[in-house]
User: What shape does this take?
Amino acid sequence: MFGWIFDAFFWLVMPIAILEASRIARLELKQQRRTLRGALAYGGAELVILALCAATASPVVFAILLALRFVVVSRREGRIWDRRIFKSAFLIATLVCVVSIGGVTDFRQLSVNELMPAARHLILALMGASCVLAVVPVRISDEPKETLVAPPPLIAFTRIALPLGYYEPWFAVVVPIVAACLSVVCALWLMSAGSRANQFERSTLVSEILVCERGVLLSFVWMGLASGVDLAEVGGLFYWWSGALALVALEASLRRSPLPKPTAFFALAMAVSLPGTIGFVAEDLLANGLLELRPFLTAVFMGVTAINAAALYLALVNMIVDLRDEFPPHLPQPKEARPSFMMLSAAGLALVIGVAPGPFVDLATRAHTAVVHHAPHPIEPLIPVVPR
Amino acid sequence: MTHFLIHSLSSHTPLHFLTLLTLLSPAAGSFVLVLLSISGVRPPERWVAVVSGVTVSTAALSAVLLAALTMLRPHHDFHEVLWTMYSVDHYHLDISVYVDPLSAMLTFLGGCVIPVLARYSGRYLHRDPGYLRFFVLVGVASTGFFWFVLGGGIDMAFFGWELLGLSSALLVCYFWDRPETVVASGRVFATYRVADIALLMGMVLVHHYVGDVSWPTVLSLGKEANELNAGAVGATVLGLAFLIAAMGKSALMPLTGYILKAMEGPTPSSALFYGTLSIHCGVYLILRVEPLLEDAPIARTTVVTVGVVTAITASLSSRVRADGKGALALASASQAGLIVAEAGLGFTRFAMCHLLAHGVLRLAQFLRSPSWLEDAQKRRSLLGGGTYRSGRYLEALLPQRLHDFLYAAALSRFGADAMLDGLVVRPLSAIAHLVSASRPRLRPTEGGRITDSTMPLHGTKRRAARPSTASAATPQTRGGR
Assistant: This one.
């Protein structure tokens, strides 16, 4: 019942968990003005819970961890009644269904056990609902503080829905279409926010940009993961990394004042998948994978990437124009904020992975194989151990 | 001696070395300047000029040598995979280079032009606050250009294509404290993004058809004898995708309008992008995929039509343009259209010569444009004064009504911008605003709701502020940005 899976997927999730944990620790320290111990405690709790979520093979343990995370986040954010409660409820309900109706006590049984079609449909529907809730930015204050790249729903989706989806031919049709529609909506929201930048407070605008961009990127991840094509699924996993780095870099640069323009534009380049950054690799894998089976979805994907890039650029340049209004050119100009460590490390990682993506793509491929085909692919040590 | 020369040219080592030097040197320069900037050091202009000058000149020199050596080789081409970036099952992305007479010619043009521009800019932007930023972006643009031209496949070309586009958009908003430049750069970026996506689509389609996007494979796609033949439909779709990409980059109709907005950038960047390098990238793409059009008569006809229409409309518009840089930009677009038409008709060698000559001439014209009036006065005084036009020009032969009609149409650039706004930008923005009607957009200070603004992508037309709230009259109401 309490089995653990330290497969390649676990190692794929770990960088995202570390990124989220360090982002939360930083936010708690800088924005919420907590003590260093308090900030580290919240960051550490996030890291441990996410790592355990990725490592556990038991749906029961996963559900307990989700409940625990809900308590921790509610205490941290100081509120209970928001979208998070529905998202967590859907996820926990999915896991309960997996155990009770499906009779599955280990995620690895999902691809072997013959579940009743009705049970499969229910589980997939609940999983899909929690993913929609995780992706769509309903209120701008909902997500950015809690999480940027929604690790728990996507971990659950990868562990549960991917193996189950192989039994359902419509799964690889309906879910990517829903994800594509979500990505279009989020991109249009971003476009509207970018063009009406003067109607927002600066902090609200940044949150709006982040939640909409997050919606677009996570929709792509979801679209790839549910596409039913191996290459696109690997692309989806890779897009998850890429989205995490881009969003962290965007947040770290946009929240600083006065806006550090070079770093903000670099974050833009990461988000719009400029070659040389990790985003390009993800976009290439996803587009090629989708085209194998779903040319229509590829067209939507391409169109949304174009709208997304233009909208993000628009938002950024409008912020710069606002900046000009805050500090008119005839007055002494304030010195631009120096890029933060978070921004620089995210940008460095995006560049390194973008220039030499081979090992990371291998890891994503092994993670995909481990999850979908349940072949144990433990990560090999970087330095081979020579027997004495 | 001849034997030794042929032997050394046949080996890949010198070409390999020169290619790497051309591709990496400007990127290294930009990287050093960015590191200096991030570390808080404010390097003096002299340092910036030296770092940029050395790296760009190294790249240019190696580019010229590379072009010369390639032309001296027995088969006039050089294709090599430098390394495989990643592979998943049967799919792999290779870093490769491909040099043939066509790419050698454009490499030669870039190698001759970029150092001249760097030298010119060093003086032109003296004591400008964005001096460092300009040279960083010039390095990025040079890197992008050489990657685009020397890349061994569409994926590598796409790499350079995107770098070139982003650096171009960022240089358009070089004077970021003026809202017009920032808005213009948004339009330029959006247009480039359309071109990027079309090229990416072409790349993905090629991969879908044959599983390989290297140039030698792409060039063999259109040949009927080839077993990888994509067929007429495939070739047509590919040809049209590449044409849309070229339309965005080379300002072909109906995407010509953005090139006028791009003139908001400093003159050296206008010369670099819209006189010499970037404007010819779309043309180069059409020249490069021209063999593919052999099997696609529809795509070929469309290419020729778009080229001819652009040549006529942009030429007429440039003649009625009041500002010098705008007229030059439209003239560039007109020549680009002409070269595309030549390529579509199959006159590839002629188009290559035309491209080379046009690039050099336009560079000189752009760089002299700040002294345009002085030059005109000098010429006039050398000619003994008097009027500049003889009165015997082609328009005089046209009937007056047609003349007036063409004049009005040319002034509005044949309604292409209005059509794009009406068909694409406004509906898209209307849908965006409709979909996001429920989103919060209040600026809570003073409790007033800010009036709706038009999309900055399609101009700066101001809409009157609603006088319903007290705050509508406050300086916060900045509708119509």
Observations:
- The two ends of chain B are 68 Å apart (CA to CA).
- Residues 179-210 of chain B form the longest helix (32 residues).
- Chain B is about 65% helix and 5% strand.
- Strands of chain B lie at 78-88, 91-99.
